[in-house]
Design a protein that fits this description.
- The protein is an alpha+beta fold and 314 residues long.
- The protein has 2 domains: 29 residues; 230 residues, Thrombin, subunit H (Beta Barrel).
- Helices cover 19% and strands 24% of the residues.
- The protein contains 4 helices and 14 strands.
- The longest helix is centred in the N-terminal third of the chain and has 36 residues.
């Protein structure tokens, strides 16, 4: 009996000691055995995300890029305008000339009064004239002399001391992009004192990005009826009641075909108000004063009275 009890107690003590040893060395055994038998260890579990509200995303900002405008073709920068042929009219008599000069040839264009005794026109209308005269429905054929000329920008001033202007025009900026403008001119189909008229639409806004074109210094317009003889005439904005440029030349249909939105034909060009005003102030300071009796008149009526036919004899 004692022997059996002693064996049982010894067995219990052995199991207890073995369990303690196993518990003590089991983590090390796991570290050694797990890689050897290829058992995957469980991945750590991340804590759940806190309850936050997702911020709203702003719409992407869209930047509108203006199309790159091409430079003006050389045939615009170096245009060679041509006025109308001289109509059949006798040259005006001059006090210091006893005999009438022999008949001559010449050219003709259009001009307008900017003061009581000054007429503005294009320089190419009076290039090398033996004699110059003006005539209109309001004034008889009257000799004038060339007071100033800017061949680069194609502007000229004519002076007369024999007549007072029936009306004068002021120079100013257009009312806005795409403004409608009105023009009078003396092409070959017009009468000696009966000008033709037409409307145009400014196209300057399509050339804002062209480095060789200053929209304040030049006027570009769609005006398909403008032709030889309109040269030197006022490009008139009736809403502003101002001259915004003068007619210089027409452009070919191919000249501006690369400009987006530009009309394919019927384009005309000329010096704008900035150049006209600068030229007038340099050559005749203070000459652009309105007479008092003209205020309140219909702008186009004033334009018609101020416009003249310019005749140049070679």
């Amino acid at each position: 009996m004692r022997t059996w009890m002693a064996d049982l107690i010894g067995l219990a003590i052995g199991f207890a000691l073995g369990g303690a040893v196993l518990v003590h060395f089991w983590p090390r055994i796991e570290q050694i055995r797990l890689p050897d038998i290829g058992v995957a260890r469980p991945a750590p579990v991340a804590p759940p995300l806190p309850q936050v509200q997702t911020p709203a995303l702003r719409a992407p900002v869209r930047i509108a890029m203006a199309p790159v405008q091409p430079a003006l073709p050389p045939d615009i920068v170096n245009i060679v305008p041509a006025p109308a042929p001289l109509p059949q009219v006798n040259e005006p008599d001059e006090p210091d000339q006893d005999d009438d000069p022999p008949p001559g040839t010449g050219i003709a264009g259009t001009g307008f009064f900017v003061s009581d005794h000054l007429v503005m026109t294009a320089a190419h209308v009076v290039p090398a004239c033996r004699r110059v005269a003006i005539i209109s429905p309001s004034i008889a054929l009257t000799p004038v002399r060339i007071a100033a000329r800017d061949r680069t920008n194609d502007i000229a001033l004519l002076r007369t001391s024999d007549v007072t202007a029936p009306a004068v025009l002021a120079i100013g900026r257009p009312t806005g992009a795409g403004s409608r403008v009105f023009m009078l001119g003396y092409p070959a189909s017009a009468g000696l004192t009966d000008p033709e008229s037409t409307w145009g639409v400014l196209e300057n806004d399509k050339l804002q990005q062209v480095p060789t074109f200053n929209p304040r210094q030049h006027i570009l317009m769609e005006a398909s009826a403008v032709r030889h003889g309109y040269s030197g005439g006022a490009i008139f904005d009736p809403r502003a009641g101002k001259v915004v440029g003068i007619v210089r030349a027409t452009l070919s249909a191919d000249a501006l075909r690369r400009i987006p939105g530009m009309p394919a034909s019927g384009l005309a060009i000329g010096p704008g108000s900035e150049l006209l005003d600068s030229f007038l102030q340099d050559e005749a300071p203070g000459a652009d004063a309105f007479p008092a009796d003209q205020w309140g008149d219909d702008p186009i009526s004033v334009l018609k009275r101020a416009t003249v036919h310019v005749l140049c004899w070679h």
